């Protein structure tokens, strides 16, 4: 295929890496179930034929084999073993049982801890500032071209959304101010016309007595 195709993505990594990450270790070996050493915690990088127990290694004497270990129910590999055959730069390492290790796959984390300033670019697990990924699996995903394109697209969409929200909020604020101004003008009481006079006030009163000039009699007009 041409440059940038799926084959190029696969060629970036050793052929054994992705199969290794998909395997389930620490299961009982089917060939040596009767042995107390039948736990499958080994992997042959040359054969890539699944997890092996220590007894299976007799058939892989001249092959490259690595040991998988476990920490809190998650698979790890010692840095001293894996760095001989794989570039693990950018992947955070941990010290477990006095040995420095890396995790094979991501580990779910409900939410980053308080004060966390750096997280895995793929699964957002809390990391030290000098690392980009929490595991080998996350590095494969996070450095793929499709992931990088999607990440750039998300950043672009996020930026556009923020600009759109800012513009929309500014427009809504102006409209609200204009509407409030219109409402004030609309609901202001109007001045009554000067010619408006009450009928009762305009009507002449009747029955007001007036004193007669002579004789002290009251005559009602």
UniProtKB/TrEMBL annotation:
InterPro entries per record: PLATZ
Region (Disordered): 149-208
Alphabetized Pfam families for the sequence: PLATZ
Domain of life assignment: Eukaryota
Biased composition, class Low complexity, residue ranges: 178-189
Record-given protein name: PLATZ domain-containing protein
């Amino acid at each position: 295929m041409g440059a940038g195709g799926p084959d190029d993505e696969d060629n970036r990594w050793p052929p054994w890496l992705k199969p290794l990450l998909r395997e389930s270790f620490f299961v009982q070996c089917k060939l040596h179930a009767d042995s107390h050493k039948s736990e499958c915690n080994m992997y042959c990088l040359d054969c890539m034929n699944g997890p092996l127990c220590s007894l299976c290694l007799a058939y892989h004497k001249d092959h490259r084999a690595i040991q998988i270990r476990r920490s809190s129910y998650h698979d790890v590999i010692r840095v001293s073993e894996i760095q001989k055959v794989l570039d693990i730069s950018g992947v955070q390492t941990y010290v477990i049982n006095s040995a420095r290790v890396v995790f094979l796959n991501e580990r779910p984390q409900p939410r980053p801890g308080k004060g966390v300033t750096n997280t895995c670019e793929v699964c957002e697990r809390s990391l030290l500032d000098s690392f980009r990924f929490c595991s080998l699996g996350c590095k494969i995903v996070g450095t793929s071209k499709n992931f990088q394109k999607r990440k750039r697209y998300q950043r672009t969409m996020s930026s556009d959304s923020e600009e759109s929200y800012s513009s929309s909020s500014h427009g809504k604020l102006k409209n609200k101010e204009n509407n409030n101004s219109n409402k004030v003008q609309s609901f202001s009481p109007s001045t009554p016309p000067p010619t408006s006079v009450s009928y009762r006030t305009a009507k002449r009163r009747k029955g007001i007595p007036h004193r007669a000039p002579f004789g002290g009699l009251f005559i009602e007009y």
